[in-house]
């Protein structure tokens, strides 16, 4: 997956990883 540059500006360090993990989890949970 490609990280969005805009997303990188909004989040930093642990915040971006927690957000990324949440998004990935939702995608995995989706049927």
Please describe what this structure looks like.
The chain has 31 residues and is mainly α. 71% of the residues lie in helices and 0% in strands. The two termini are 18 Å apart.
List the helices and strands and how they pair.
Layout: H1 5-10, H2 14-29
Q: Can you count the beta strands?
A: 0
Tally the helices: what do you get? 2
Q: How far is it from the N-terminal to the C-terminal residue, by CA? A: 18 Å
Structural class: mainly alpha
User: What kind of sheet is the major sheet?
Assistant: none
Q: Label the overall shape.
A: elongated
Strand content bin: under 5%
Oligomer: single chain
Given as residue ranges, the uncertain stretches (5+ residues, pLDDT < 50) are: none
Share of helical residues: over 70%
What is Rg?
10 Å
Average pLDDT, rounded to a whole number, is 73
Q: Give me the strand/helix succession.
A: HH
Quick description:
The protein is mostly helical and 31 residues long. The radius of gyration is 10 Å and the shape is elongated.
Task: Give me some keywords for this one.
31 residues; mainly alpha; 2 helices
